[in-house]
Design brief:
heterotrimer, A mainly alpha (about 280), B alpha+beta (about 350), C mainly alpha (about 260), A: mainly alpha, two-stranded antiparallel sheet, B: about 350 residues, alpha+beta, Rossmann fold, OB fold (Dihydrolipoamide Acetyltransferase, E2P), 2 domains, 6-stranded mixed β-sheet, 5-stranded antiparallel β-sheet, about 25% helix, about 35% strand
Chain lengths: ~280, ~350, ~260
Amino acid sequence: MTGARMPSRRLRAVLLAAPAFAILAVLFAVPMLLLFVVSFWRVRNFALTPDMSLAAYARVFDTYGDVLVSTMINGGLTALICVGLGFLFAYAARFRAGRWGDALILVAIVTLFGGYLVKIYAWKAILSTDGFLNAILIASGLSAQPLDTLLYNRGAVIVALVHFLLPFAILPIYGQLRNVSDIQIEAAHDLGASGRQTLMRVIVPQCRTGLFAAFAISFLYAAGDYITPRFLGGGSGSMIGQFIAQEFSTRFNWPAGAAMSFVLMAASLLVLGLVGALFVRRRPS
Amino acid sequence: MHATAPQDPILLLAGLGRRYGQSDVVKDIELAIPRGSFTSILGPSGCGKSTLLRMIGGLTLPTSGRIEIDGEDVTYLPPQKRPTNTVFQSHGLFAHMSVRENVAFGLSLARRPREEIAERVVDALKLVRLSGFEDRPVDRLSGGQQQRVALARALVMRPKILLLDEPLSALDLKLRQAMQEELRAIHQDAGGTFIFVTHDQAEAFALGDRLIVMNKGRIEQAGPPGEVYARPRSRFAAEFVGDANFLAGERKNGRVALAIGVEFDLAGPDGPLHLMLRPEAARLHTTDKGGPEDGRLRVAGNIVEIVDLGPFAQCVLELEGGHRIEIAGIPRTMVDEIAVGGRVTASWPEAAMVDVAP
Amino acid sequence: MRPLGAVLWFAVIATLVLFMLGPLAIVVVFSFNSGALVSLPLTGFSLDWYRTLFSSAEFWAAFQNSLAVAVPTALLATVTGTMTALALTRKSAAASVPLLTALSVPIMIPPLVVAIGLVVLYVRWLSVPLGLGAVIGGHLLLTQPLVALVVSARMASFDRVALEAARDLGASPWQAFRHVTLPQIRAALVGAALLAFAISLDEFIITIFTIGSGNTLSTFVWGKMRTSLDPSINAIATLLLVITIGSTAIALRMTRYRG
């Protein structure tokens, strides 16, 4: 064997990739497996007991079925708004803003790294009864009394989530819009397409995967978030993540927390699968 | 500036100009294009030829002047409302569509009946020799095939004028020559008026039955290619369409004295002048016979450089006073008789020299 | 373009930019405002909130912990991520896409799930004490795929022939890496490390689950957010913004972000 003297290329590649994948295996794959196993266990007298029980899953659907549905709706709404606004923004940056296009993308990148908690805090400060928006509403005479309905509802959660996720939606869409050349737009007009026809038949079809990626990222993150609903959501805006955290850390009911996690991920994948079937058309081959 | 206006032109440009900020990219274009012609617009990059084409197609709006197509004023009409179609340099095919969908795009926007679209797409693909490629995705075609799809996509619309904006410049030489031949054949088969923009003089000559030379936003000269080559009106036109010797001289009372030391009669006003001589118009002699009476000019000189091209050779001759002229098209039989350093005589007809603006 | 269309587009873009930057701008502005309420009118310029913050021992402890997490995270992620990127450019593109995707799964699922998975592993199976080391492990999961993506994007435009020329001239694989590859990807490496640093600094969910006791800057903010609307949050948020956006801006410059 010649490989005995010198490590072969293949072996070298495997060795190079080994540390990252070792970390992935030990800190991610194994925990997910353990979490999956734990989801079938039971809690007896505040102690985890190995079992093969579906009790935790039953509890998810009995107790949290409504919250799960509401979570999917909030995630879906957030993702739809992100895709809509993200496309508008990316389209403007690519085709309408001229030399300001790069500046717009810089705005998106700045807000991408603007801080997760900071944004939630900012929205609380803006929307609270003695907050910024109410001060403007009263000063401008649009409202006589401070509104206490701005915060602690589904709307507040979605606004904050959209704010957090919009840059994540803009960037993949923009990335694909850059592949649509100006020549293609000119060719479309040259062949008789109006502005709307160019948009619908030339531009949108070419950023389908970007639009889907934007939807998927926004949806996955929104549906799995628990800080935003906890902080801004109140009763009507609560989402499954809050209860996963609660079951897990306050009640120490790990099986329930684990089962809810897998149900959340399965439900999310289901929604994404359905949306993906609509979004992504098969290419001609 | 242009040759006598043709009867019933398909395209008429009057005072057409485009200004960006302070600079005129295209200025004062007066042009009439005959119906059914194949016109090449030739010029260096940045001469405004593409802008001119884009204005005809409606992709760039002019800042002055008028465009008429088939008697109708289309100056400010958007591209989708013009009877023109464009083949772009970097084809601009729709990457998410098959060959068929690309070619059918314009017809389906025009809401033509399904059967008609299918039939015309088949015909257009047959014309560009891509039958059988209907269902391929366009990104799996070669560069030449992609450009032919772009051609079919424009041709299928049966435009009154087909505009071609350096469509072959991204292709390699062999493919380009093959495509030039196909374009000529397609023009004959499909009819219609073609306007072809290029910076490559060989391509312009190979393709067009009319040639327009542009420089700095203006038309330098327009006419049949042979005429532009043989009788250029400016030094720029002379140099851009081929190799040229420029002979400086002075005219007094109808007699011209050239700096290279020859004199002859040529009517015209007194003063300095420049005459253009194509290198292949001159002939080389190892032994000098004949006299001034045969209408030829003769100069003697030493050969300083010979480039053997195979079937022909070209050489550079140094004359008295250090003037140099280039002579091309030296036949094979003569190549063996000459050598660098040898003394020879060159001759050319007086009529072969063309007075060009300096 | 019709002027109406232009005006409409301007309005849409301006609104979106205001929506995106407004909340961050408010936080920054009010960090310099003397009043305790984030509301109009502004009561006057003041550095009191920064003074309060800088005189708090808790803040400095959190700051130290944040650095103690973010710096090792950035360094380790850059090493493992870069090694992965190098390994994958040696393979065919067909193999590298699924491998990079696999490495990226932790950033595609809810961080809450990653966090409780880690807690189960650390506490129940490994009996590893929660703490800063535990947090670094979690943050590596999030940052190493990003480093790998950034570096392999750089490697894609890398001149392989130069590498072969180096080998042809007698360089060992290590020498070729050291003298040919590394100088060309150095900027991308620094950029990727800064990105990893910014992400680690900002990360909250995995941190709060795995840190045990003590604070990083993000859990420190969380503590203040929960108890009351303490305006010194504006000051610390502004500091975080400056650090993350600053390091990201440098990172993007160095990696020449291409969408």
